[in-house]
UniProtKB/TrEMBL annotation:
Species annotation: Muricoccus roseus
The protein's name in its UniProt record: Peptide/nickel transport system permease protein
GO biological process: transmembrane transport
GO CC annotations, alphabetized: plasma membrane
InterPro entries: BP-dependent_transpt_permease (IPR050366), MetI-like (IPR000515), MetI-like_sf (IPR035906), OppC_N (IPR025966)
Record-stated family: Belongs to the binding-protein-dependent transport system permease family.
Gene3D superfamilies, A to Z: MetI-like (1.10.3720.10)
UniProt keyword annotations, A-Z: Cell membrane, Membrane, Transmembrane, Transmembrane helix, Transport
Pfam families linked to this entry: BPD_transp_1 (PF00528), OppC_N (PF12911)
Compartments reported by the entry: Cell membrane
Location of the ABC transmembrane type-1 domain: 91-291
Topological category with respect to the lipid bilayer: Multi-pass membrane protein
Transmembrane segments: 21-43, 93-118, 214-235, 270-294
Length: 303
């Protein structure tokens, strides 16, 4: 209880409690995450159980429209799938890819950044020039290139099975330079401080110095960057899926649902695309606003 009380009275929690935007964003993000994680329990239907689909229910409008039914609050799509349930299941895939890709980019960026900042010299120059070259290209183009190369290299029968992993790696590789440059800048500052020099004198290995002495001092900026990058990773996955090169139709994400609904957007069945799009906006916007608050809360100059 004492630890909870200290956490509740900490500067970070006080900043959170007194910032309405952060509270509302956290509530929206929590609803999105719980709805996605608990989709098998909370969703009214399993939209991907082919035995439960009925084409006679196709194109039912939302409940608030004429001829709508509360059995399908957000209506149904062209195959009779409940749109609300499809959004909840699709958000699971979007969150899985977003979190996994961010974690992969974070791990790769931290490794490269620590190595470049601590080693310096030619190692630093080579690694940072690679990062600079990659930063000159839009992330989505890098992800498309990696996804295309992976699909060409893998056997066709494995495409659907490995599609999620390919997308995670593609997005992660496209995002790692941001983390690497952040960690490298902090490592350059920390490597010449007294505690690092003392660790070298007593014979501690460079790897241990980087992990136990330098890395903890850059966790604050990394946490902020990872939070902001999560929203970008979710958007990148949605873009790839909308273009038809992301996750397979058997594991649709929010981007896939928007692409399917786009085919019927101008024929009057607008809810098939609009509701997944609103869910994507709510998820990404809430995460980004939390990242903005966290950046301000961890910056002592703004207190």
């Amino acid at each position: 209880m004492a630890a909870i009380a200290r956490l509740w009275n900490s500067d970070l929690f006080w900043s959170f409690r007194t910032t309405p935007t952060a509270v509302i964003s956290a509530a929206v993000a929590l609803v999105c995450i719980l709805g996605a994680v608990l989709a098998p329990v909370l969703a009214p239907y399993n939209p991907f159980d082919l035995a439960s689909l009925d084409l006679m229910d196709a194109f039912n409008p939302p409940a608030f429209m004429e001829e709508g039914s509360w059995a399908h609050p957000f209506g149904t799509d062209d195959q009779g799938r409940d749109v609300l349930s499809a959004i909840m299941y699709g958000a699971r895939v979007s969150l899985l890819v977003g979190v996994s890709a961010t974690a992969f980019a974070l791990a790769l960026g931290v490794l490269v950044g620590l190595l470049a900042g601590y080693a310096g010299g030619a190692v630093d120059a080579v690694l940072m020039r690679i990062a600079d070259i990659q930063l000159t290209f839009p992330n989505i183009l890098i992800a498309l290139l990696i996804d295309g190369v992976a699909r060409a290299a893998l056997p066709r029968e494995l495409h659907d099975q490995l599609a999620v992993y390919v997308v995670i790696v593609a997005i992660g590789i496209s995002e790692w330079p941001k983390f690497a440059r952040t960690v490298r800048g902090s490592a350059l500052v920390e490597r010449n401080k007294e505690y690092v020099l003392a660790a070298r004198v007593i014979g501690i290995s460079p790897a241990r110095i980087m992990l136990t002495h330098v890395l903890p001092n850059v966790l604050g900026p990394l946490l902020v960057l990872a939070t902001l990058n999560l929203g970008l990773a979710i958007l990148s996955e949605a873009t790839l899926s909308f273009l038809g090169v992301g996750v397979p139709p058997t594991q649709p994400s929010l981007g896939t649902l928007i692409r399917i609904g786009n085919d019927f957007l101008f024929s009057g069945e607008w809810w098939i695309a609009i509701f997944p799009g609103l869910a994507l906006v709510a998820m990404v916007l809430s995460v980004n606003l939390l990242g903005d608050w966290l950046r301000d809360a961890l910056n002592p100059r703004l207190r």
